[in-house]
């Protein structure tokens, strides 16, 4: 007979506990979260007028006198079930901005909408996949004596892909400073789109908000060369936002022209540094903007929402372009299991981060993400619903929202008492997560069949 592991024995101990059913209920409510947070306390809900107790919940009757809640980490490497939930919320959030739903009117699908991809510029030639990599007939060399061509057909998994042909020619300070200013470059891009739209309608720029409103949701993705690029859904509404029709001049073609013009024109100048000089940063010349059409031509809205949602579960570490945790010392960089290219980017962050002129960029604090400090998903206020609203919605569905309302007052006392699972608990939680994932897959397949209809 197989030897029982420590986790197996612990799982058996848990299953024999008289309160196991309730414990399993808690784990199921967290979706099988890998690192649940344990809380102790109570909530009393009273009628605001009479003071009568409508509902009382106390952890004293719970197993271990505590309640476990989700860790809510969005990263798949940290907690798979919570990252799936977060990706699902992102999908609904992006989808609602495209097709309506969750308080957003369905009419948004008739609005001019684009799926935009903006890239980083080149900081020097890197190895790439596809046909032969940078073929050169003359066999020239750079000033460091390295060949300027490659000629190999690289497999996508080849570690050379994304690495520079010559690390000494590659502009590492520009790459890191571009990351550090990518958020500002985006903000200026959005202002530029508004400005171009206003001038195409012969409006003074200051009057744009009286006529139209631009909304967006964007995600950042690390490419093979460890530079971030941006995918965004951009939508044009009337001045009041999603409930309002855009003006007659606000067509998808005008929006497309404005996006392209702004992406090609906006610049951010870096603070002068004696070591680096002053850099003029801009987007890469590859700008992709595809109309999302209500008539079903062009990329499907559902596919775009799923595509955007996929990226929020990935951080720099999943793409090999950084680590999960902040670096605390120069020596940390040497011990990271990353490519020389990524390590050189981290060292550049560390080095430039020590210069007083770059102090506001906090390059050392963001060395683990190569200087990029934007959130993975950013959206404008009027784009659609919020993560908080989606979470509240879910709590209502589970019945946690019962007995709360405008005429009630809640008295809550909670404290953190710990986190994580015992070895056996982790085993059971993983099983719960797997079951829930399977159920979801079956439900999804059923929806697909219903949507396609009988053939
Ligand atoms: Zn979790
Ligand atoms: Zn190559
Ligand atoms: Zn060189």
In short:
The chain contains eleven helices and eleven strands.
Walk me through what this model shows.
- By secondary structure, the chain is of the alpha+beta class.
- It has 2 domains: 6-74 and 387-452, no CATH class; 80-123 and 171-379, no CATH class.
- It is built from 11 helices and 11 strands.
- It has helices spanning 6-15, 20-29, 80-99, 172-200, 208-211, 252-265, 301-312, 330-334, 340-353, 387-398, 423-452, and strands spanning 37-47, 53-58, 67-69, 113-118, 213-222, 228-237, 268-269, 280-281, 287-291, 377-379, 408-419.
- It has a 5-stranded antiparallel beta sheet, with helices on both faces.
- β5 and β6 (228-237) form a beta hairpin.
- α4 (172-200) packs across α9 (340-353).
- The protein is globular.
- The model has no long low-confidence stretch (mean pLDDT 86).
- One zinc ion binds at residues 142-144, 146, 166, 168-169.
Mean pLDDT: 86
Q: Tell me the span between the first and last alpha carbons.
A: 52 Å
Q: What is the number of beta strands?
A: 11
Bound molecules: zinc ion
Order of SSEs: HHEEEHEHHEEHEEEHHHEHEH
Outline = globular
Helix content: 25-40%
Count every helix, treating DSSP H or I runs of 4 or more residues as helices. Answer: 11
> How big is the Rg?
26 Å
- Percent strand: 15-25%
Strand order of the largest sheet: 9-4-6-5-10
Low-confidence stretches: none
Count structural domains: 2
Structural class: alpha+beta
Largest sheet: 5 strands, antiparallel
């Amino acid at each position: 007979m197989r030897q029982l592991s420590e986790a197996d024995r612990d799982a058996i101990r848990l299953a024999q506990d008289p309160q196991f059913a309730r414990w399993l209920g808690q784990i199921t409510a967290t979706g099988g979260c890998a690192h649940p947070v344990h809380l102790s306390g109570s909530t009393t809900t009273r009628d605001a007028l009479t003071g009568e107790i409508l509902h009382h919940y106390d952890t004293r009757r719970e197993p271990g006198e505590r309640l476990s809640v989700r860790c809510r980490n969005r990263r798949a490497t940290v907690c798979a079930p919570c990252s799936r939930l977060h990706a699902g919320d992102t999908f609904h959030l992006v989808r609602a901005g495209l097709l309506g739903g969750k308080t957003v009117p369905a009419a948004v699908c008739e609005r001019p909408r684009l799926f935009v991809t903006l890239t980083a510029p080149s900081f020097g030639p890197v190895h790439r996949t596809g046909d032969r990599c940078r073929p050169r007939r003359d066999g020239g060399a750079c000033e460091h004596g390295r060949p300027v061509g490659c000629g190999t057909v690289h497999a996508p998994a080849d570690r050379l892909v994304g690495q520079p042909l010559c690390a000494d020619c590659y502009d590492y300070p520009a790459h890191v400073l571009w990351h550090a200013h990518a958020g500002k470059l985006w903000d200026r891009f959005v202002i530029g789109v508004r400005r171009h739209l206003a001038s195409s309608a012969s409006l003074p720029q200051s009057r744009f908000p009286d006529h139209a409103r631009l909304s967006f949701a964007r995600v950042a993705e690390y490419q093979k060369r460890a530079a971030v690029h941006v995918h965004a859904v951009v939508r044009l509404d009337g001045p009041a936002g999603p409930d309002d029709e855009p003006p007659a001049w606000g067509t998808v073609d005008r929006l497309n022209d404005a996006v392209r013009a702004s992406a090609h024109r906006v610049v951010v100048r870096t603070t002068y540094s004696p070591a680096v000089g002053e850099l003029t940063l801009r987007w890469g010349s590859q700008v992709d903007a595809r109309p999302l059409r209500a008539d079903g031509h062009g990329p499907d809205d559902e596919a775009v929402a799923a595509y955007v949602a996929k990226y929020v579960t990935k951080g720099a570490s999943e793409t090999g372009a950084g680590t999960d945790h902040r670096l605390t010392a120069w020596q940390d960089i040497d011990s990271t299991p990353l490519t020389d290219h990524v390590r050189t980017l981290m060292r550049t962050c560390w080095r430039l981060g020590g210069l007083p002129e770059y102090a506001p960029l906090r390059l050392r604090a963001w060395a683990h993400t190569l200087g990029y400090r934007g959130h993975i998903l950013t959206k404008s206020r009027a784009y659609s619903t919020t993560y908080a609203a989606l979470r509240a919605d879910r709590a209502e569905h589970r019945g946690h929202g019962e007995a709360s309302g405008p005429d009630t007052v809640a008295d809550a006392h909670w404290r953190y008492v710990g986190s994580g699972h015992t070895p056996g608990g982790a085993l059971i939680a993983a099983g719960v997560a797997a079951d829930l994932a399977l159920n979801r897959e079956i439900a999804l397949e059923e929806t697909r069949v219903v949507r396609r209809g009988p053939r």
